[in-house]
Amino acid sequence: MGKKLNTAQQRAVCHETGPMLVLAGPGSGKTTVLLCRISRLLERGLAKPQEILALTFSKAAAEEMKSRFENLNGASGVSFGTFHSIFFRILRSRYGWNVEQIFQEEERRSILRNSIEAEKWDIPDLEEYISQFFSQLSLMNSELEQPNRFTPTGMPVEEFRKLYRAYEGYKERHEKLDFDDMLTQCYQLLREDAAVREYWQRKYKFILVDEFQDVNQAQFACLQILAERHQNLFVVGDDDQSIYGFRGSAPQIMLDFNKYYSDAVRIDMCINYRSTGNIVFASRAVAEEN
């Protein structure tokens, strides 16, 4: 390991227990460090494969992490997944949800079209209006905000709340859920059901998160509950990058990580192995204006 990893990377990989924040830019080996850390946890006997959870934001990224890890270590039993897939797994274990109950996009939009038509509202661009509603709905859910306290942008408050009631009513009548529900319902379940909470806290002894700068309030709230028992939360992110702001990602959560975990160790990985010197220099000049 020493020949392949620089000093900062080795420190991150060799960290054993307790929370850790790794700040790392593009090309600095974030995912490599995360995978090497998992290997070391297993080699040192600090965890069994089924006690490790590795999270990221896209299905492709999760599958790539799993593939890279298993190419080096073989099939392991480590849980690799997106926030939505893991939280859906938790919900399914309690409520028996199945994938057929997840809303398809066109079905969601059809509900809104029918509701708006019933209200006889004069909407110049209906499809754009519907997109705006769902954007604001996701923002509200990602912030764990209540509809009676949330002020949407791009549409009147009363219209938003009326559509929200119609949409939620349809879901309840037809036993459907959407991707936002996977976050908010998982949070409610973990917070309110002690038996479920304790089971999943015991199950995942180590939790690792890639691209942590893109986490939102709902995702982080669930992470905090899951990591509460063992406190082994290892997060990796780039403090100059956040691509999911439209979904409510909150980079400030990463920047304030030590406020949530006062004993967290922080490591900065500064060496870029992917880009040439002039690219690194130019990108750093841009980032410094952030």
In short:
This protein has helices at 7-14, 30-43, 59-73, 83-95, 105-119, 126-142, 157-174, 179-192, 194-203, 217-226, 251-255, 257-260, 277-287, and strands at residues 20-24, 52-56, 79-82, 206-209, 233-237, 265-269. It is α/β, with parallel strands linked by helices and 290 residues long.
In words, what does this structure look like?
It is a single chain. Helix content is 53%, strand content 10%. The radius of gyration is 21 Å and the shape is elongated. With 290 residues, it is an alpha/beta fold. The chain has a six-stranded parallel beta sheet, sandwiched between helices. Helix 1 crosses helix 2.
Which helices and strands, and how do they pair?
Blueprint: H1 7-14, E1 20-24, H2 30-43, E2 52-56, H3 59-73, E3 79-82, H4 83-95, H5 105-119, H6 126-142, H7 157-174, H8 179-192, H9 194-203, E4 206-209, H10 217-226, E5 233-237, H11 251-255, H12 257-260, E6 265-269, H13 277-287
Parallel strand pairs: 1-5, 1-6, 2-3, 2-4, 4-5
Helix pairs in contact: 1-2, 2-3, 4-8, 5-7, 8-10
